[in-house]
Amino acid sequence: MARMSESDFLASLSDLTGKISIVTGGAGGIGLETTVYLALRGCTVYVASRNRERSLKAIASAQKRVDAASDDPQIPRVKQFGRIHFHQLDLGSIKTARQSAEAFRKLESRLDIIIANAGAGLLFQNELSDEGLERTFQTNHLGHFTFIMSLLDLVEATAAAHGDARIVNTTSYGYAGAKVPNYEDLRQLKPNDGSSLLHYMPSFQRYLVSKLCNVFFTLELDRRLRERGVKNIYANCCHPGLAGATTFGDGGLGNSRLAHMTEAAIKFLVVKIGQTNADSAKTQVYLAASDDIKRNDSHGEYWEPLLSWRRFYYSCSRKELFPIGKNLAEQEKLWDFSQQAIDMVQSREMVEPVNDERVELAA
């Protein structure tokens, strides 16, 4: 199959003029390409990220790309290209994730799309999160769970008023190689973790567990929404592909010489067999912005890109989950654990809203 052109891909998406979206980790890698695609279809995009300075530089670059598209006859027209803003989000704790959601509610009265794209990869367990949990699980699952659940009523109101809304969780096909979460182990501090090359395999397994949690959360969220009669929020998850310019999430592999050597070796391999960031972003953008999702009533599904023999994107499709991804008991167990973790934090302290202002670039 031939590679899908950028113009054909954009034409396959809805006109998103007037819609509001959040892309976590939208300042780099496939998150940045996701941001650009949505803005090119007219969507207002909030890049939810921890690093303000780095994000503002990336947003400025992305907005220039979007604005320059007005002179490109190959780019399908929309009523107006979208604007890109920064929004402070630290997924590393329940408190900061909830504060970010509360701050966003003061900025916008609607929320059409959430793409939970941010992630940390290959972190060591020599320190725990503020809630005393393993940091990969905290960032990749619990932070997003807290953020999305704190905004869910706004998403529901938007879907009711405007027809539909989308929630997309970025996972990995590596979920199939994970074991179900061990909630006791998630609370264990391992002071010497990361001091040996042998520690990379357990670290990678924790990453895979967090990606399995993304699948569990998506399916359990969808099930609970449908049970309540909410049928116009389309929650799905996807494997984006193997991005050739991956940064291993927001955490990286650490600062030791061993970590840098390992990261360089992995990046070399990924570049050789991976896809571009743009191609890797397309599946989650399609789930967030294509009319086909609503038309086909696609919800509670796992999707993957379809690639040519040269590793170019030409489409994407729903894929059957491996049995571990369909484990209903584990989906519910994860939900209960996550909600209990939030309840414990809320019972200990009042959440104070952050002083977060929308940053908009001059037109």
Descriptive tags:
44% helix, disordered C terminus, single chain, 10 helices, nine-stranded mixed beta sheet, 363 residues, alpha/beta
Radius of gyration: 19 Å
Mean pLDDT rating:
90
Question: Could you give a short account of the major beta sheet?
Answer: 9 strands, mixed
User: How many distinct beta strands?
Assistant: 9
**Helix percentage:** 40-55%
Pairing-aware structural class of the strands and helices?
alpha/beta
- What is the N-to-C succession of helices and strands? HEHEHEHEHEHEHHHEEHE
Low-confidence segments, given as residue ranges, are 359-363
What is the percentage of strand-forming residues? 5-15%
User: What is the end-to-end distance?
Assistant: 39 Å
Shape summary = globular
Task: Describe the model.
It is a single chain. The chain has helices at 6-11, 29-40, 52-68, 94-105, 135-162, 200-227, 257-273, 277-289, 291-295, 328-348; strands at residues 20-24, 44-49, 84-88, 113-116, 165-170, 233-238, 302-307, 313-318, 359-360. Helix 3 links the parallel strand 2 and strand 3 (84-88). The radius of gyration is 19 Å and the shape is globular. The chain has 363 residues and is α/β, with parallel strands linked by helices. Strands 8-7-6-5-4-1-2-3-9 form a 9-stranded mixed sheet, sandwiched between helices.
